[in-house]
Amino acid sequence: MRNKIRGIMFILGGIFIGLGVYRGEVERVLMKAINICLECVGIG
Amino acid sequence: MGRIKRKLVQIMASIGTNGYFKGFYNGSIYNGDLKRICVPGLNCYSCPGALGFCPIGSLQLIISDVKYKFSFYVVGFLTLIGVLLGRFVCGWLCPFGLIEELLYKIPSPKLKVSKKFQKLKYLKYFILVIFVILMPMFWVNDMGIGFPTFCKYICPVGTLEGGIPLVILNKSLRSIVGFIFAWKVALLIIVIILSIIIFRPFCRFICPLGAIYSLFNPISVYRLDIDSSKCTECGNCAKKCKLDIEVYKNPNSLECIRCGECIDNCSNNAIKQDIL
């Protein structure tokens, strides 16, 4: 049972990553991550 | 030997995640292509040394974005890492976990968390749901864009790794710090003091990333098993566990960060690491 759950979650994880890349989420995060996030460091 | 190995892995993981040393020298952050990669531990992407992006920061970013609202990429990444490792990430790969453990080594009276206060472990799930998911999703501006509420109001990692080094190294940033920065520094000081007297208080009670990985502990590929033919239920593992886990009863507790102290201290060799 545990192995089945692992397998499903593994496949789901892979699909989600693919969907996220397809939707452009990685590029969106990159645009944010390469600039200083003033909110994240508590300045802005 | 186990302790030295784990410390070495923690140090290497921290250096690996924050390897852009030039950023600490000139007060800038890394803006190369490696920032497309999510790191497994809690590591602010505004840290001058950060090479990848923080899963909790990016989760809030995508959730608060008008276009997306749900982050398939980060959820997929956390699912994969969670299924493989669970809270092994907390114990071996998270830079802030290493910092807390080093602080705990400072000689001082140590506090054992009483059973009543151990219930505070549920606070991290509350923080995950409210500050990481719901507030970025629903507390939005006129354009429908939210903001990273956990990062902005709570996360001491961002303050320590990003805020303080950047403010020290950048004159222009020094001129715009205000109340929020003071609040975050105060929170950081509290976490530092608590980390000296309690083992990993941030991981136990606050960290939303630990909350996510904890859900995978019962099913992760990396797990602990008790050999019932060898275990005498002496309770030595529970006494040695710095997170107050009764390991012999619940070796894959949601709170276990896989530090291995129980394995090293079991006189009957009854606790085994199981990978598959």
UniProtKB/TrEMBL annotation, chain A:
InterPro entries, per database record: CD1871A-like (IPR047708)
Listed name of the protein: Thioredoxin
Organism for this UniProt entry: Caloranaerobacter azorensis DSM 13643
From TrEMBL, chain B:
Entry-linked InterPro entries: 4Fe4S_Fe-S-bd (IPR017896), Electron_Trans/Redox (IPR051684)
Keywords associated with the record: 4Fe-4S, Electron transport, Iron, Iron-sulfur, Membrane, Metal-binding, Transmembrane, Transmembrane helix, Transport
Gene Ontology terms: cellular component: plasma membrane
Transmembrane regions listed in the UniProt entry: 42-64, 70-99, 120-139, 176-199
Domain 4Fe-4S ferredoxin-type: 222-251, 252-276
UniProt GO MF annotations: 4 iron, 4 sulfur cluster binding; metal ion binding
Protein name in UniProt: 4Fe-4S binding domain-containing protein
Organism: Caloranaerobacter azorensis DSM 13643
